[in-house]
Design goal:
The strands form 3 sheets. A 6-stranded parallel sheet has the order 1-11-8-7-5-6. Strands 3-2-4 form a 3-stranded parallel sheet, sandwiched between helices. The protein is α/β, with parallel strands linked by helices. The protein starts with a strand and ends with a helix. Helix 6 crosses helix 7. The chain is globular and about 50 Å long.
Amino acid sequence: MAQIIDGKAISQTIKDEVKQEVQELSAQGIPVTLAVIQVGEDPASTVYVNNKKKACAYTGIRSLAYHLPENTGQDELLDLIGQLNEREDVNGILVQLPLPAGMDEDAVIEAISPKKDVDGFHPQSVGALCIGKPGFLPCTPAGIIEILKRSGIDPAGKECVMIGRSNIVGKPMALLLLRENGTVTVAHSRTADLKEVSRRADILVVATGKAKMITAEYVKPGAAVIDVGMDRDENNRLCGDVDFEAVSGIAGAITPVPGGVGPMTIAMLMKNCVRAARMQNAAEKDS
């Protein structure tokens, strides 16, 4: 039976570390503030935003919530982002995705100052990741690296397969595994012999968006399997992209859904907020 990686426990440890850092910064007169913008009434977005507010409250990060109506114009949203960019008391800005139909998500993401891009989605952040420069890391891939490291799984020298090529998870995950000296293959819906490619992996990260797609025949015995998916099964129960029951019998380690990767995303967002406050304060001292 595989080692079940407890993402909730690891994320709690990280939030406790962040809480300590926030207290230390506060003692130096440096508060940490995150502004969260939600447009519309998407139920999943509301849950995510509330979870971020709770994490801020726990760690001592001040959160500013901006809930705009569904019919908000893009110019109005961009104007709000511009105001938050200028505010010295705001360290991080997060616009909850998806946005209502008709809004240009790329334009909205690019409007956020790279110095406050705590989601790690701005092209400047992505470019920095590509060439190994300092910058904000996207929270889910960064959380997966923390899961691996804190579970004693070192990507260095290992065959790593990333199934999925999204801008939010797949591509940055591949780059982070490469940065950790893994030998990385990015597979996707057009990959020939996906099962064969997947079975090469010592570390298999799955973000396909298809419930229980990855069965035991995709997995090398003893592999570490990281399931990024959040789906519903035939009984409307939460599940991942990996068939947990089947794969946990062959994998060496596996993340469950829920309770695996999900909690790590918000924990890493909190870490990015603290990093933003430190970087901005250092820049003020240097100016």
